[in-house]
Design a protein that fits this description.
heterodimer, A: 507 residues, mainly alpha, 2 strands, 2% strand, B: 2 strands
């Protein structure tokens, strides 16, 4: 049984600078990767950098679990002058999630990139990937609102470039990346405008200070305007319905490396930041905050869960199905958070981790198949299970988890969400979760039927089993879907700690 | 204290699972494959019978497998109802395997390996359901059962089969996700656990409103019990090959639904709460309506398997009614009916399959006079039919008698009336099938010949003769079974 204790006991004693090293590691590795001579060395640097970040994340998680939230002042300068990192249970959970996704994606990229991207570009791809990773890790560990903007942009710039590089396989990657760039920039701009409003009202950018000062300001209209800009800006980044237009394109046409990483982390980190603002920075119990949650966030999240699941059932391309499914699942995560109870937030965060794991498994399995089968449409995957049984089995594990089949992590996540909704007396949220699960089953069923039960039309190109370097991480993740389905104490503890950090003092 | 008990539970789950894998592995060798199926079913029967004995001796096997989340356990614990269900399903799996071999070879069906693998998987799920110690565990296996039987329903692979498969999945999974799962989560929230406890987990823990909602969610959520209006999947599933209809849609799947309702009534709500909840009365009306309507619809069906399916819908509502009668009056009768109807209905379905494989006739109107050439099959059909109707010397008499007595005893007139009317209707729509077939054909006597040289294959006839004999044997042993089940209705102080 994996328990939290054994994990952080395995982590090294906290080096005093772990928070900054966790971000600086991949950042430095990005520079080295860009200068490295061959594709292979850049891959090795990428794996090393990601592993280093994960190691640091593990150390921080252990430290947070033992001694509570970590404050770190860069260069020793305390805020308001200096820049502070602040990592509590929630930040630690996100850092662990992002960095482990980074490790899996980088290992996986060794073989998958070769099929998808021209060899001479590999060094740049790895550099951009590391940049993206460093940005996201900074985002979840910073305690400074403006700093968060910087990290958000660092990660996004890496991601835009990486999506665009998918053009070798499909020219549609270029408009998709452009779309992503425009939407993402608008989102970031709105966010930074919102920060501007808050700065004007409070004179600080440090989140803890912001929180303290906002509590005394009440329902000032400047603060409300800031709130609106921030949630809409982050809503775009988090692909919150109906601001999700960029996501299906980006997830469909990017190379597998970035798609699996984005699917596991990109929207999740923006959800993190949004939750941080809604529950931590802005005063609890402020009327505008509560109204936003009750009348905007929850209804939109529920709409996403239903509408995008339906959309996913009508899509023809396998990656677009998964992409729309992601938007719908983001809705479910937000529904959990919108309950604003400890149980609800921990269910939402639990779902967030579960979804990261299953979507990563699915995109990885599809990416592995796509190495030999340059296909996009679901129909082209008919009967793939015969040619590539391992990839197909891994896909099935992820898909079943996504559908919430018993004995998978996804089932427990759905259970937690239902439980939290019923416990909060929000019957309609429970009903939405149940109906969304049903719709999920429809498109999951379509995918599994094509892969396992239909046979390939005669003369169609046949898939070949993915190479071991690709298969190994896929199978590990697929196994984790089942493992955590039998013993979810690790994600449960992470989510519980995250929820407590987010909602200190809530029921 | 329970030395060896956990091993039995492990074996009960591992045997069918191992069989599924082994059957898949030797799929290219039909003889080995089918021998394996039979051996597995015999082994499983031995295991379930041992468990049955242990429960009878007051030493029930217990096993906790995993604890995925705090407060949620995958755990098993036998009690009389579950032990009976496990024995029934595993023994009939054996008989049914015999039948399958004859039928599937006789029909030269495609994809036979998949067929046997899915069958073994379904038995794995049934064992999990029968042994589950709590609703959480039960739900897991309940879903496995749905998905493992889906390929069996769509076995033919044509458009009609796929359509039926969609209805099958949509109804069963839909109900379990939208009704059953929220109901279970509700129980968990109300009581802090989902464990089956004699006397009722929820006793004293819920108010009437919550109790009503939970009862409705759980009873309708167990859509495998085919309570109207969630019965449509069962007639639709009749596109499946006869062995599937026989074992799954007379024994394993539908009885899993009925079993869940019995178990929920006895161990989650408990007799006091059931007696106090208005929803139980509403559900008794729904069940009574289901009993009568299903019997009436059955009369209009010419397709034999469809007629049997509608009859099953009605008979399942008997068990549902039994579970919901006040003061636990019907629980033992319900458990008994679950067992006896299984024997009767599997006989009827196997007869339908035997007729179809031998002559190609699937409609009642095509069977006039066929009994002259297939006397054993039609005699067994008659036995099964009379058992379903509830006439001596067939076991059905006892369960019907106990059910109607319980309904009268609790002054649930509507249920009593529905049961009596439907028994009469049953006599009208089931018995004539056999009688007309056995009588000499009228007029020009166009009794269809065999499409196979020697009529129904030997294993097929042997299988249905065994279960028909079971219908008679249970007539003699019904009392012992009822005594075995008695603890489930015992009030816990």
């Amino acid at each position: 049984m994996i328990s939290f204790e054994t994990l952080y006991a395995a982590a090294p004693a906290l080096t005093a600078h772990a928070p900054v090293l966790m971000v600086a590691g991949p950042l430095i590795a990005a520079c080295v990767a860009a200068l490295s001579p061959t594709a292979r060395t850049s891959w090795m640097i990428s794996v090393t950098g990601s592993m280093f970040a994960a190691w640091m994340a593990l150390a921080i998680t252990g430290e947070v679990a033992r001694h509570g939230a970590v404050d770190y002042y860069i260069g020793g300068f305390a805020p308001p002058l200096g820049i502070a990192f602040y990592i509590d249970g929630l930040g630690a959970m996100m850092a662990l999630l992002v960095s482990s996704a980074g490790v899996m994606a980088s290992i996986y990229s060794g073989h998958s990139l070769a099929a998808e991207v021209r060899a001479e570009k590999h060094t740049h791809v790895q550099a951009a990937f590391l940049l993206c990773q460093a940005g996201l890790l900074g985002l979840v560990s910073t305690g400074d609102a403006f700093n968060a903007f910087v990290f958000l942009e660092v990660s996004s710039i890496g991601a835009y470039a990486l999506v665009a590089i998918g053009e070798k396989r499909d020219r549609r990657a270029l408009p998709a990346a452009f779309n992503y760039l425009i939407m993402g920039t608008i989102g970031a701009t709105l966010y930074v405008i919102g920060i501007g409003f808050l700065y004007a009202a409070t004179g600080t950018l440090n989140m803890a200070d912001l929180s303290a000062r906002l509590a005394t300001l009440g329902d000032s209209s400047v603060v409300q305007a800031g709130f609106a800009f921030i949630v809409v800006g982050l809503g775009i980044k988090a692909a919150m319905f109906p601001l999700h237009g960029w996501l299906p394109g980006a997830y469909s046409f990017g190379p597998s490396l970035i798609v699996i990483f984005l699917a596991a982390t990109a929207t999740k980190t923006s959800i993190y930041l949004m939750a941080r603002f809604i529950f931590d920075v802005f005063p609890d119990g402020a009327a505008f905050g509560r109204n936003f949650i009750a009348w905007v966030l929850a209804p939109l999240a529920a709409t996403a869960a239903i509408v995008c699941s339906i959309q996913a059932t009508f899509e023809r391309e396998i990656r677009r199905i998964l992409a729309f499914s992601s938007v719908a699942q983001v809705g479910l995560i937000l529904l959990g958070l919108s309950l604003a109870t400890i149980l609800g937030a921990s269910a939402g965060l639990f779902y967030l981790m579960a979804h990261a794991l299953m979507k990563m498994t699915l995109f990885m399995a599809v990416g592995g198949l796509a190495i030999s089968l340059p296909a996009r449409r679901l129909d082209d995957f008919a009967g793939v299970a015969r040619d590539a049984p391992w990839s197909a089995t891994a896909f099935a594990a992820g898909a079943l988890s996504l559908a919430g089949a018993p004995l998978t992590l996804g089932f427990l996540a759905k259970w937690r969400l239902l439980e939290a909704a019923l416990n909060a007396g929000q019957i309609w949220i429970a009903a939405t979760v149940a109906i969304a699960s049903l719709l999920t089953l429809l498109y999951v069923g379509r995918m599994l039927e094509a892969i396992f039960f239909r046979s390939a039309p005669a003369g169609a190109p046949r898939a070949v089993e993915a190479p071991v370097g690709v298969l190994a991480p896929v199978l590990v993740l697929a196994g984790l879907n089942i493992w955590f389905g039998l013993d979810a104490s690790l994600p449960e503890q992470l989510a519980g700690a995250g929820a407590k950090a987010l909602l200190a003092g809530a029921p | 204290m329970t030395s060896g008990g956990d091993l039995l539970i492990f074996l009960a789950l591992a045997t069918p699972l191992f069989a599924a894998v082994a059957i898949y592995a030797v799929g290219r060798m039909p003889d080995v494959r089918e021998t394996l199926t039979v051996i597995a079913s015999i082994a499983l029967s031995i295991v379930t019978i041992s468990m049955f004995m242990r429960v009878g001796a007051g030493n029930p096997p217990v096993l906790t497998v995993a604890r995925p989340l705090a407060g949620l356990e995958i755990a098993f614990r036998l009690e009389p109802l579950g032990a009976l269900f496990a024995v029934m399903a595993s023994a009939l799996w054996g008989v049914n395997s015999l039948f399958s071999i004859g039928y599937m070879r006789g029909k030269r069906e495609a994809n036979q390996t998949r067929f046997y693998v899915c069958f073994a998987f379904a038995m794995f799920a049934v064992m999990g359901i029968a042994m589950a110690a709590n609703l959480f565990t039960l739900f897991i296996f309940y879903e496995v059962l749905t998905f493992s039987t889906y390929p069996l329903v769509t076995h033919a692979g044509d458009a009609a089969a796929r359509r039926a498969g969609r209805i099958y999945l949509a109804t069963l999974v839909g109900a379990s996700l939208v009704l059953f799962l929220p109901g279970i989560v509700g129980v968990h929230l109300a009581a802090g656990s989902t464990t089956f406890i004699p006397g009722g987990l929820l006793t004293g823990k819920v108010n009437v409103v919550t109790g009503n909602v939970l009862l409705l969610l759980l009873v309708f959520g167990a859509a495998k019990a085919a309570l109207m209006p969630l019965h449509g999947w069962l007639p639709a599933a009749m596109v499946a090959p006869a062995p599937v209809s026989a074992l799954l849609h007379a024994v394993a799947v539908v009885k899993a639904g009925a079993f869940v309702i019995l178990k929920t009534s006895a161990y989650i709500f408990g007799s006091d709460l059931i007696s106090a909840l208005p929803a139980a009365t509403w559900l008794l009306w729904v069940a009574a309506g289901t009993i009568v309507i299903a019997s009436l619809v059955a009369m209009t069906k010419d397709e034999l398997k469809l007629r049997l399916a509608w009859s099953t819908v009605g008979q399942l509502a008997y068990v549902t009614s039994a579970a919901l009668l006040p003061a636990a009056a019907g629980l033992v009768a319900g458990g008994l009916h679950m067992l006896i109807h299984a024997f009767a209905k599997i006989t009827l379905f196997m007869c339908a399959g035997a007729i179809y494989v031998a002559t190609g006739a699937s409609k009642v109107s095509e069977m006039r006079g066929l009994g002259r050439s297939m006397p054993i099959v039609f005699a067994c059909f008659l036995a099964g039919a009379l058992c379903v109707v509830g006439l001596p010397p067939f076991a059905g008499m006892w369960s019907k008698f106990l059910l109607i007595t319980a309904a009268f005893g609790t002054q649930t007139w509507i249920t009593a009336a529905a049961m009596i009317v439907s028994s009469l209707l049953g006599l009208l729509y089931l018995a004539p099938v056999a009688i007309r077939a056995l009588l000499p054909p009228a007029g020009d006597g166009s009794s269809g010949g065999f499409i196979r040289p020697y009529g129904a294959p030997g294993p097929v006839v042997a299988a249905l003769a065994i279960t028909a004999a079971g219908c008679v044997a249970l007539f003699l042993f019904a009392d012992a079974v009822a005594a075995y089940l008695a603890p489930i209705a015992r009030r816990v102080p």
